[in-house]
């Protein structure tokens, strides 16, 4: 009887350890703990910093927290570091995704979503983006289009793990 009980307890502990290990790996995959590469085919801004089109690595700027995000080109020459805030969705992302706001030919990095994640990172609107939006609203008002929607177009780009 004692042996059966200890075998049962041992099996339950092993199963708990497996579930815990799987859960930790899954949560880590949903964060920016792994950098990912993405080819961005247009010039863009992260905050007020303008970056040229090209291949970029995106991930944590520090080892412990997703709040500060680094965007670095493949040669390490163009770099932007910016604080972000968490945003959530009910549906897990099937791919790592970058979301940009587009105003004409100007793009601003808005959100980052890791693969399998329900929590992404969002950047506050920069002063450059706010200025463009104000200018568009003033132009619409001057043209008699008061109340016209001056919301940015949303552009998404998929990335992959590095």
- Largest beta-sheet characterization: 9 strands, antiparallel
Radius of gyration: 22 Å
Query: What structural category do the secondary elements indicate?
Result: alpha+beta
Return the string of H and E elements: HEEEEEEEEEEHE
Average pLDDT confidence is 83
Shape, per Cα inertia axes: elongated
Detail the poorly predicted runs.
Answer: 18-30
Question: If you had to describe this structure to a student in words, what would you say it looks like?
Answer:
This protein folds into two domains: about 1-30; about 30-160, no CATH class. About 25% of the residues lie in helices and about 40% in strands. The model is unreliable at about 20-30 (pLDDT under 50). The protein is an alpha+beta fold and about 160 residues long. It has helices spanning about 1-30, 125-140; strands at about 35-40, 45, 50, 55-60, 70-75, 80-85, 85-90, 95-105, 105-115, 120, 155-160. The protein has a nine-stranded antiparallel beta sheet. It has a two-stranded antiparallel ribbon with strand order 2-3. It is elongated and about 85 Å long.
SSE blueprint and pairings:
Elements (H helix, E strand, L loop, with lengths): L1 H28 L6 E5 L3 E3 L2 E3 L2 E7 L7 E6 L5 E5 L1 E4 L7 E8 L2 E8 L5 E4 L4 H16 L10 E9 L1
Antiparallel strand pairs: 1-4, 1-11, 2-3, 4-5, 5-6, 7-10, 8-9, 8-11, 9-10
Index terms:
38% strand; 11 strands; 162 residues; alpha+beta; two-stranded antiparallel sheet; 2 helices
């Amino acid at each position: 009887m004692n042996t059966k009980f200890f075998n049962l307890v041992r099996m339950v502990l092993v199963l708990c350890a497996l579930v815990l290990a799987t859960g930790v790996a899954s949560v880590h995959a949903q964060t920016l703990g792994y950098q990912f590469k993405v080819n961005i085919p247009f010039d863009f801004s992260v905050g007020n910093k303008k970056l040229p089109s090209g291949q970029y690595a995106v991930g944590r700027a520090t080892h412990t927290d997703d709040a500060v995000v680094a965007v670095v080109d493949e040669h390490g020459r163009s770099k932007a570091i910016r604080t972000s805030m968490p945003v959530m969705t009910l549906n897990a992302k099937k791919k790592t995704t970058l979301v940009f706001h587009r105003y004409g030919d100007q793009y601003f990095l808005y959100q980052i979503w890791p693969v399998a994640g329900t929590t992404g990172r969002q950047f506050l609107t920069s002063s450059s983006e706010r200025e463009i939006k104000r200018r568009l609203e003033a132009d619409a008002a001057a043209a008699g289009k008061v109340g016209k929607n001056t919301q940015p177009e949303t552009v998404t780009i998929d990335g992959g793990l590095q």
